[in-house]
Design brief:
Blueprint (H helix, E strand, L loop, with lengths): L8 E7 L7 E6 L3 E5 L6 H18 L4 H5 L9 E5 L4 E4 L12 H4 L2 H12 L17 E8 L5 E9 L12 E5 L1 H4 L21 H8 L14 H8 L4 E5 L2 E5 L2 H10 L8 H10 E5 L10 H5 L1 E2 L2 E2 H6 L2 H8 L8 H16 L16 H10 L10 E5 L7 H16 L3 E5 L3 H4 L4 E6 L8 E6 L1 H6 L3 H5 L15 E8 L7 E7 L2 E5 L6 H8 L6 E4 L12 H4 L3 H12 L22 E4 L7 E4 L10 H4 L8 H5 L3 H9 L6 H12 L16 H12 L6 E5 L7 H16 L3 E5 L3 H6 L2 E6 L8 E6 L1 H7 L3 H10 L2
Parallel strand pairs: 3-15, 3-16, 5-14, 14-15, 20-25, 20-26, 21-24, 24-25
Antiparallel strand pairs: 1-2, 1-4, 6-7, 8-11, 9-10, 12-13, 16-17, 18-19, 22-23, 26-27
Helix pairs in contact: 4-13, 12-13, 24-25, 25-26, 29-30
Length: about 775
């Protein structure tokens, strides 16, 4: 054997990232290794935080110092030995950028190739590729142009072509405000006609309007003249004298645009954020009809379609249009586009269109979009790292994903996959099971070996690998129905369906069949409806479960009351923060192109609070000790005894209900896994009052053992009188349902229809749909 052939393992020794407990593993190269374990057991810490992070850090070091200055600084993982690393390509679940100019076509380079194609074959010819770009405006210039050698040239009305629609600036929509949400036309200013938060009739915000003299404050708004209405709503800044004082007067609309609508929505207080989301409306741009392009770019066509028409087609139809182009002059370009479209179809995204905004893609769709560029890649001997590639996939689509993972392996690559689905775990060549629990109860290797060995082991994953949730013997009787009639958003085809209330109703179907369009489009979140979608929760290293759930408020109040001081002292983001580290607990030292060094603050010892604050106690503990408690211990602490705080105990009980009893109250949000964040979000929404709960893929990131706990939580919600509607692909959730609504039969325009309504037992017996076939196989019928 050649000496070079001996390096066939990735060796990890003494890994201590996050909750990893000095673990060591040996991973075979050019094989498919799956990492399993309950959510929070340390899988991502080992795969992404240790192996992939060190691979990327070492590659970054090969760039020049000048280039490294502009690159993110990655600290060296806390590990003793890492050997045998290869270049790592990460395909994670992070959402694609939600920039409103970003679409599926722009993030995959499909638009760039289409622009080149239309600039060469489009009739009539209107210009180069930039003439078809909705991110570049058409500009005109006149004056003196200076060349590279100083030569001057007079330019008169030079035109630089771009494809941007001037009306919407390439966004496809224009923003407007819904006046019915802002003012009540039937009332006068003195009676509270302004509905904006903080603008009460007797408040100082409205006093300027009343004292302005531009209109009668006791006259209903609907009786205002055109001038009075314009002065109230749109008048630009002007000086007036009110109550003998010179003040500035702004119309209501420019005033609230500056104070509310120009700010980041997520930074606003909850009640103001809710108002902004109600009042701000986006409508299709009338000039370009939502295509983002100007008239010239829309006028150039190939085989009867313009570039906007092609981008609006679903990818399978765009691929069919492309097959009609036979021109040897653009053959390489057409071949590349055809390969890209075929990759979309192969990965199960053929139902999407290229003009789909990238921010609207689900976590699973975003991850598969990132995979597109790796299909058919000529790279070999690299390490591909996937984070739950089956998330958001119907059981029918999981086999397709498995084939792609095996293809990457068979080309000579090392494939590392973090996964919970048994269908993907069983195809592994090597399995690493972490646990036995989560958080401080995890971080150790429970099993390492083959899939047969895992099944024979007594680990939690091994026991649940062949576990099946049985069909219910009896299902609940609905207490009513929610009628949906003529639903036609996105790909829905005038769907009529009765959604039963008072039961656990599961909406299923292949990815892209119209599930989210039906549920979110027909059951909008509002009065009586609590909607938990797949949007990622945001948070900096200052954020933690206590701040995100609102738990810190009753805790601070209890501490303040017990010690006779202000609540602000017990916040690391306010007056109680250690002045040396500003409440971070760590001192971060930037060393230019070298690693940023993080060291615990010497003054507070990493506890984030001033020494004087740590002297103040409640129930025998100081605030830092309370934030270091796991949820389960904190619940026992606040539920009874001297520290009894019902408001805190109720929040902690919800966190325990969703299986987060091991999580520390002060653990930074960025260190939480995807499954932990999803459940943290669910626990927060459970506090909202509502009769109907709408949950979108609540099993994302959950181990089979955690899914059982989730099913118990859904049962308790239904038994308490709630209606629970779940969009799900997980067979365990389907089997546990009282009623199933199955959409399909396919995705995109091949879906959007109801293909089954009834009980899970009836669906299994009929086996008339893809979902029925897979559910029957799951329950063993």
């Amino acid at each position: 054997m050649h000496a070079a052939d001996n390096h066939d393992l990735i060796r990890v020794q003494g890994a201590r990232v996050n909750n990893l407990r000095d673990i060591s593993v040996e991973l075979p190269k050019r094989r498919l290794t799956v990492f399993t374990g309950v959510s929070g057991s340390g899988k991502s810490s080992l795969v992404f935080g240790t192996i992939a992070a060190e691979s990327r850090r070492l590659i970054d070091e090969t760039y020049s110092t000048f280039v490294q200055v502009f690159m993110p600084n990655l600290p060296r993982p806390d590990v003793d030995v890492l050997e045998g690393l290869t270049t790592a390509i990460l395909v994670d679940q992070e959402r694609l950028g939600a920039n409103r100019r970003s679409t599926l076509g722009t993030v995959t380079d499909a638009n760039a190739m289409l622009r080149s194609l239309f600039s060469r074959l489009g009739k009539p010819y209107i210009g180069g590729p930039t003439a078809f770009s909705f991110n570049i405006p058409t500009t005109r210039a006149s004056g003196v142009m200076t060349g590279p050698k100083g030569e001057k040239k007079i330019v008169q009305d030079a035109v630089y072509l771009g494809g941007m629609c001037a009306e919407c600036e390439g966004r496809g929509t224009i923003s407007d405000l819904d006046l019915s949400v802002i003012i009540d036309e039937s009332k006068s200013l003195a009676d509270g006609a302004i509905l904006v938060p903080g603008y009460t009739a007797d408040g100082w915000m409205v006093a300027t309007f009343i004292a302005s003299g531009f209109f009668d404050p006791r006259k209903p708004i609907k009786d205002y003249s055109e001038k009075e209405r314009r002065d109230l709503l749109y008048k630009q800044t002007t000086k007036i004298k009110a109550k003998g004082i010179n003040v500035s007067y702004d119309g209501l609309i420019p005033k609230i645009r500056k104070s509310m609508f120009s700010k980041d929505v997520d930074s606003l207080q909850p009640h103001i954020k809710a108002f902004v989301e109600r009042a701000a409306v986006f409508k299709t741009c009338p000039a370009c009809d939502g295509s983002r392009l100007n008239e010239a770019a829309r006028s150039s066509k190939i085989n009867g379609l313009g570039i906007a028409d092609v981008c609006a087609l679903q990818v399978t139809d765009a691929a069919e249009w492309l097959r009609g182009i036979d021109d040897k002059g653009v053959a390489p370009l057409v071949d590349n586009l055809r390969h890209l479209f075929d990759s979309f179809v192969e990965i199960g995204l053929g139902y999407l269109s290229l003009d789909r905004p990238s921010g609207t893609l689900s976590g699973g769709e975003a991850q598969r979009t990132k995979m597109v560029r790796h299909i058919g890649s000529a790279l070999t001997d690299v390490t591909y790292v996937f984070d739950e590639p089956t998330v958001g996939l119907h059981p029918h689509d999981i086999q397709r994903m498995n084939n792609l993972l095996l293809e990457l392996r068979d080309k000579g690559n090392t494939v590392l996959v973090v996964e919970h689905k048994p269908e993907t775990i069983v195809i592994a060549d090597h399995v690493v099971d972490l646990g036995p629990g989560a958080g401080t109860g995890g971080g150790t290797v429970c099993f390492e070996g083959t899939i047969e060995g895992l099944k024979a082991s007594e680990t939690l994953t091994g026991r649940h690998l062949d576990h099946r949730t049985p069909l219910k013997d009896t299902v609940r009787t609905p207490t009513g129905t929610l009628e949906i009639r003529g639903a036609n958003s996105h790909n829905l085809q005038d769907v009529d369906v009765d959604v039963p209330l008072g039961v656990l109703c599961v909406v299923t179907g292949v990815a892209g069949s119209g599930k989210s369009s039906l549920v979110h489009g027909s059951i909008p979140a509002g009065a009586g409806v609590v909607s938990v979608d797949q949007a990622a929760i945001k948070g900096s290293r200052r954020s933690n479960p206590a701040t995100y759930t609102g738990l810190l408020e009753p805790i601070r109040t209890a501490f303040a009351k017990a010690n006779g001081v202000k609540p602000a002292l017990f916040s690391a983001n306010s007056e109680g923060a250690c002045p040396t580290c500003n409440g971070n607990g760590m001192i971060y030292t930037e060393l230019g192109f070298m690693d940023t060094v993080a060291t615990p603050c010497e003054d507070c010892g990493g506890k984030r609070f001033q020494a004087a604050v740590l002297e103040l106690r409640f129930g025998g503990l100081n605030i830092a000790e309370v934030l270091d408690l796991p949820v389960a211990e904190a619940h026992a602490f606040f539920a009874e005894g001297n520290a009894k705080t019902p408001a805190a105990a109720s929040i902690l009980a919800r966190l325990q209900d969703v299986g987060l009893g091991y999580l520390k109250l002060g653990q930074p949000l960025p260190s939480l896994s995807g499954g932990e964040r999803q459940r943290l979000k669910l626990a927060t929404h459970m506090a909202e009052k509502g009769g109907t709960y709408v949950l979108d893929e609540p099993t994302s990131g959950l181990h089979p053992a955690d899914v059982e706990r989730l099913l118990g939580l859904l049962d308790r919600l239904v038994e308490s009188g709630k209606s629970v509607i779940v969009i799900a692909h997980h067979q365990a959730v389907m089997a546990h349902a009282d009623w199933i609504i199955d959409l399909g039969p396919g995705a995109g325009h091949d879906g959007g229809r109801i293909v089954f309504e009834g009980t899970p037992a009836d669906l299994v017996a009929a086996r008339s749909t893809l979902t029925g076939e897979h559910l029957a196989a799951y329950v063993g019928s």
